[in-house]
User: What shape does this take?
Amino acid sequence: MEEGELLYRVAWACTGRGAIVEIGSFKGKSTIWLAKGSLAGAGAKVVAIDPHTGSAEHRQGDQPVWTYDEFLANLRRAGVEEMVTPVVATSAEAAARFDQPVELLFIDGDHRYEMVRQDFDLWFPKLLEGGYLLMHDTIRWEGPRRVARESIYRSRSFRNVGFVHSITFGQKVAQNTAADRRRNRYLLLLHIVYDHLSTVRVPPALKRVAKAIFTRLQ
Ligand SMILES: C[S@@+](CC[C@H](N)C(=O)[O-])C[C@H]1O[C@@H](n2cnc3c(N)ncnc32)[C@H](O)[C@@H]1O
Assistant: This one.
C-alpha cells in the first residue's frame, strides 16, 4: 500500500462522529486523498489547516511563499473543493478555536521537533477514542520520528500501531493492553530497521520488495 492509499482508506473508514483534521496541506496532495476517501465514506469534511506560507524547506532566500491559490486550484481540479474546509492559520492558532471532536488527525506541518511535539500535544486531546492519528515523515525526519516513537509506539494510548513508508499511524484508546504494548514495541523495532534501511542506496525494484516485506511483517 502507498501513503496516499492509506490516507484514503482511513478517511473512508471514518464514521462521521468527528472531524477529519489535517495539519499541513501545502498544495493539497494529502488533502485530496483524505477528501476522496471521506467522500466515498461517511462524508465528513476535511479541515485543512495551513498558514500557506511554507515550512523552512520551502522557503528559498527572501522569496515569500504563498501556496493557498495553488492549493484551491488543485482541490477544484480534483473535484473535492466542497469536501474541504480550509483554515489559513497555524496549527496552534487553529487549535485554540477548534472545539469539535476529531476522528482522524493527520500531522504533516512544521517538522522541527518542538513544533511536531506542539502539534501532537495540542491536538491529541481532541482525538476521539477509536479515532486514528497519522503522522507523516516519521522516517528520516528527526522531529516527526522522535514524536512518533515517544508518543505513538511507546504510548499507553494507542493500539493497532503501524506504518506505511513514512506515515506512522495508531488508533487512540483509553488504555492499551499488555498485548497491544508488546505489538507496538515490535512495530517500533520494525520501524527502526526500516528507517535504517531507507538510508541505504538500493535499486527501486529492491526498495519495492523491501516495502512489501515490511508490510507483510506488520
Ligand atoms: C510537508 S508540507 C505538507 C505536505 C502536504 N501534507 C502534502 O501532502 O502535500 C508542510 C506544510 O506545513 C505547513 N506549516 C508550517 N508550519 C505550520 C504550522 N505551524 N501549522 C500548520 N501548518 C504549518 C507549511 O506551510 C507546509 O505547507
About this structure: The chain has eight helices and seven strands. The radius of gyration is 17 Å.
